[in-house]
């Protein structure tokens, strides 16, 4: 999901149907499936000591 957060537009599909289109922030507000996926990743993706997710730390260099 880290790469998706950087995208200009994200398309969320469920069973072959488009269920959401927008930016990361827009989809968090309007697409329950996207929000659930984001929350699931946050649960599965531990934080570094400074509170940064390890994947985000990789992109920040």
Structure commentary:
By secondary structure, the protein is of the alpha+beta class. It has one domain. Helices cover 51% and strands 18% of the residues. It has helices at residues 2-5, 24-30, 32-44, 54-60; strands at 10-14, 17-22. It has a two-stranded antiparallel ribbon. The two termini are 18 Å apart. The model has no long low-confidence stretch (mean pLDDT 79).
What is the element layout, followed by pairings?
Layout: H1 2-5, E1 10-14, E2 17-22, H2 24-30, H3 32-44, H4 54-60
Please give the number of β-strands.
Answer: 2
Count of helical regions: 4
Largest sheet: 2 strands, antiparallel
Domain tally:
1
How much helix is in the residues? 40-55%
Order of secondary-structure elements? HEEHHH
Shape: globular
Structural class comes to alpha+beta
- Distance between the amino and carboxyl termini: 18 Å
Indicate the mean pLDDT. Answer: 79
Low-confidence stretches: none
Radius of gyration based on Cα positions: 13 Å
* Sequence of strands across the biggest β-sheet: 1-2
Percent of residues in beta strands: 15-25%
InterPro entries: P-loop_NTPase
Protein name: Subtilin
Organism: Bacillus subtilis
Short description:
InterPro entries: P-loop_NTPase. With 61 residues, the chain is an alpha+beta fold. The protein has helices at 2-5, 24-30, 32-44, 54-60; strands spanning 10-14, 17-22.
């Amino acid at each position: 999901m880290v790469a998706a957060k950087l995208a200009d537009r994200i398309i969320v599909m469920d069973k072959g149907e488009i269920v959401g289109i927008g930016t990361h922030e827009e989809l968090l507000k309007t697409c329950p499936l996207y929000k659930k996926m984001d929350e699931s990743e946050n649960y599965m993706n531990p934080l570094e000591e400074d509170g940064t997710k390890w994947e985000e730390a990789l992109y920040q260099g």
